[in-house]
């Protein structure tokens, strides 16, 4: 892709670009725009982020991005600021990539950051500009922002009033593959009002490089563009929950969930991707986006159509309960058990712990009295900021030392390569739960491990054996075993 940039550089003058909000999405977008040959200014309200980025230091983990950041900060093509005035004076095209998190205690998205960013930008604009929304928003947001922009401009003296256009260009990048997904996306979607030809033409110039290599471009209205984004995430979440729903069946009756997924995936109409059964989806996108979609559909009086998403969410969250249940069955009593949790990020190749199944499970095990040590190759710092009371190990070996149970919850390559003999000299008990279905169960069982995985019938000590273990010499037997058996019976 970078091979195409010389042609773009030659075609001066290029529009100057600002990216407002320099988190996972915005920092990636800004660096990739610079890679495509544009002069770029990134803006964020977080002063620490701006200081770090201006020094060429990426404040999060994303493969390939540090190199691009250093390259373009050094060349001067990529700069960062916290001044809206500077951004408004600089840019022809302003991408909005601020957060749209779930509102605390509600399902709906919090649009306060998007509204504030657009309002602040427009307030400072004295020249014509195209504002391009990239944040994931509920359908109807762009049309509402159009009115907000018009209201903001109303009353300005005529010669000074700039012309401000708006387009919606949702982002589909995945964390861990953000650079590739931005430079060579599967598709580009651009929503405009009334077929706004000028904005479309400008964005075709911005995206000339990916378009030249055949990236499909879908030019449509605001509503369709907004909906493509949330529909894509809803579909992906549904695929994951679909296979995980079958896990609940195979866990009872037997069967192999991975073989089932492989067999389904051979049907080209279904496809194998996103059918990996395990502890399910987390992160800063899929969970909040399906909840926000359900909430928006409810507001629009179309809630019944999206009700299945609530079920997808429930299936997803039940996977976390299943791990707690397996862990309890395995160690007999969580109170005092030493549990090593491998993984804290919501997925490998990311340090993002937003709504991470791994970290949620680790915290729940801890809250049930287990002595939990977490190890993640990249996310320990973010995890510790969220749950400072958990223990964090600097290595896999340190995490599993003396463990009564090892639980794999994020499938980093380092964990996928694990073999029984790597852990045997370190653990206290040979017990393993594979929460991502990435290890060969038979090898572990053959080495004498009690090994269970999601989507497979539990192969852990049964209730009878648990009873014996707890009433035996184990000091944990003093911790209310009666309550424990009653709670098991109640399940
Ligand atoms: N992370 C992804 O993989 C991804 C992919 C596609 C879409 N999205 C969407 O992109 C948006 C951003 O997600 P993210 O993961 O990058 O979030 P993030 O929290 O990493 O980054 C958001 C940034 O916006 C900044 N910000 C907040 N208010 C601001 C304001 N008024 N002006 C300037 N900066 C402001 C924050 O300080 C933060 O740095 C969300 O809508 C998300 O759903 C994210
Ligand atoms: O078969 C699978 C695939 C994924 N996951 C989990 O699903 C979550 C999301 O994974 P992924 O979609 O790869 O990560 P994100 O970076 O959150 O990307 C999603 O969310 C982004 C933000 O909206 C979109 O831009 C992307 O297209 C969309 O894939 C993670 O917890 C994964 O562990 C599974 O459990 N099983």
From TrEMBL:
InterPro entries attached to this UniProt entry: 6-PGluconate_DH-like_C_sf, NAD(P)-bd_dom_sf, UDP-Glc/GDP-Man, UDP-Glc/GDP-Man_DH_C, UDP-Glc/GDP-Man_DH_C_sf, UDP-Glc/GDP-Man_DH_dimer, UDP-Glc/GDP-Man_DH_N, UDPglc_DH_bac
Key words of the record: NAD, Oxidoreductase
Domain UDP-glucose/GDP-mannose dehydrogenase C-terminal, residue spans: 340-441
Superkingdom, natural source: Bacteria
UniProt EC number: 1.1.1.22
Primary enzyme class: oxidoreductase
Transport listed as a keyword: no
Pathway info: Nucleotide-sugar biosynthesis; UDP-alpha-D-glucuronate biosynthesis; UDP-alpha-D-glucuronate from UDP-alpha-D-glucose: step 1/1
Catalytic activity: UDP-alpha-D-glucose + 2 NAD(+) + H2O = UDP-alpha-D-glucuronate + 2 NADH + 3 H(+)
A Pfam family per the record: UDPG_MGDP_dh_C
Similarity section: Belongs to the UDP-glucose/GDP-mannose dehydrogenase family.
The protein's name: UDP-glucose 6-dehydrogenase
């Amino acid at each position: 892709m970078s091979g195409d940039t010389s042609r773009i550089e030659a075609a001066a003058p290029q529009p100057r670009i600002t990216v407002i909000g320099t988190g996972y999405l915005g920092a990636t977008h800004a660096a990739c725009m610079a890679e495509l040959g544009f002069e770029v200014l990134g803006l964020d309200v977080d002063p620490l982020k701006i200081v770090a980025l201006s020094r060429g230091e990426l404040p999060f983990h994303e493969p390939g991005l540090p190199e691009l950041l250093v390259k373009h900060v050094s060349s001067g093509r990529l700069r960062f600021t916290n001044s809206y005035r500077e951004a408004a004076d600089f840019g022809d095209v302003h991408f909005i990539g601020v957060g749209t998190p779930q509102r605390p205690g509600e399902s709906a998205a919090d649009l306060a950051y998007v509204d504030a960013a657009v309002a602040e930008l427009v307030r400072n604009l004295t020249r014509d500009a195209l504002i391009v929304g990239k944040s994931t928003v509920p359908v109807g947001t762009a049309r509402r922002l159009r009115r907000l922009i018009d209201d903001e401009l109303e009353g300005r003296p005529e010669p000074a009033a700039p012309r401000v256009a708006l387009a919606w260009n949702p982002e589909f990048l995945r964390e861990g593959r953000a650079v590739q997904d931005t430079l060579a996306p599967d598709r580009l979607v651009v929503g405009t009002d009334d077929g706004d030809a000028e904005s479309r033409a400008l964005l075709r110039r911005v995206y000339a490089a990916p378009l030249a290599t055949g990236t499909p471009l879908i030019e449509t209205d605001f509503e369709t563009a907004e909906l493509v984004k949330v529909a894509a995430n809803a579909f992906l979440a549904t695929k994951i929950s679909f296979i995980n729903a079958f896990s609940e069946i195979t866990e009872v009756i037997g069967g192999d969930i991975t073989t089932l997924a492989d067999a389904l995936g051979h049907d080209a109409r279904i496809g194998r991707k996103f059918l990996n059964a395990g502890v399910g989806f987390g992160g800063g996108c899929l969970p909040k986006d399906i909840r926000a979609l359900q909430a928006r559909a409810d507001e629009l009086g179309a809630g019944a159509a999206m009700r299945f998403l609530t079920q997808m969410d429930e299936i997803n969250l039940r996977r976390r309960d299943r791990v707690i249940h397996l862990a309890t069955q395995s160690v007999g009593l969580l109170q005092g058990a030493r549990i090593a949790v491998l993984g804290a990020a919501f997925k490998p190749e990311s340090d993002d712990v937003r709504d991470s199944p791994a970290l949620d499970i680790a915290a729940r095990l801890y809250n049930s009295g287990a002595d939990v040590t977490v190890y993640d190759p990249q996310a320990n710092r973010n995890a510790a900021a969220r749950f400072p009371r958990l223990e964090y190990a600097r290595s896999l070996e340190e995490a599993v030392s003396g463990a009564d149970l090892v639980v794999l919850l994020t499938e980093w390559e380092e964990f996928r390569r694990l073999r029984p003999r790597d852990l045997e000299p370190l653990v206290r008990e040979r017990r393993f739960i594979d929460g991502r279905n990435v290890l060969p169960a038979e090898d572990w069982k053959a080495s004498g491990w009690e090994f269970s995985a999601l989507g497979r019938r539990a192969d852990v000590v049964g209730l009878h054996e648990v009873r014996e273990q707890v009433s035996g010499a184990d000091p944990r037997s003093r911790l209310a075993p009666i309550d424990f058996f009653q709670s098991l019976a109640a399940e």
